[in-house]
Amino acid sequence: MIGGIVEVAESGRHLSVYRGFMRVKEDGAELGRAPLDDISALILSGPQISLSKNLLVELAERKAVVVTCGRNWHPVSLTLPFDAHHQSAGVLHDQIAASTPLKKRLWQILVRAKIDNQRSILERHHPGHPKSNELAVLSRRVKSGDPENMEAQAARHYWTALMGENFRRDRFAEDANSYLNYGYTVLRAATARAVCAAGLHPSLGLHHGSRINAFALVDDLMEPFRPMVDSIAYELSKEAGDPHASLTPDNKRRLAAILQQDMLTEKGASPLINCLGRLAQSLTAALAEKDASLELPQLPPPGRLL
Which CATH superfamily groups domain 5-62? Predict the structure, then answer.
């Protein structure tokens, strides 16, 4: 378990509740336990895993998220607690009533933060790269709602600069994309938990608004933190020296460890998993007060970044 994330990757496991623990068994023999109070997300990536209804209830009561992964560690479902906040009805009303200009300004803040973090990660791995200045310009050009799609323009510069000219972001590719898929799954699960704990409805996004995306708001709020996953994926690819990614247990632990990465806040250093909670709570306040402000942390200096 790292940062409250528990993954079950092997086939034939059965998960159940036992005296405040999640117990893992195979063929009737116990393999291990994890305290229920310490679990923020359970990732099911192995085939033929079974779990008890009581376990689902206990995890939901603790606001934990259950993620089911499909091919190449891409999440195909998220199971979220139904009523994770005592004022969820009021928060839902604020979400529905939020004006388009307010949502556009909030999205502007998130996009700028994402591009700024992309630039920081690029500078960390490729100091002085010419694309760094272009990212800085694009960040300043982000307008309310990002009508010119500076986010996509930044991505075109960023990915090839960071990962190489031949890299393409493809969730089904078996190269560095596998690292990205797994890291984003961890980040998405933690963000989903923060969203539900703040009483927000995950399907009512600020920008992402597809009718088939039940986690639009989650995808909005996790955007600024994706570059942290990219950084680890780059390092793992460089270390492997192989076009085909190998998601070993050690590699998964390194990717999941981003949730414990200390970020810089106005109140000092704080782990990313806590910062996600404060970001979601700040969005709740912004919607209630109709004020376009969010509590977003900054990346630490390169020497303190995973």
Answer: CRISPR-associated endonuclease Cas1, N-terminal domain (3.100.10.20)
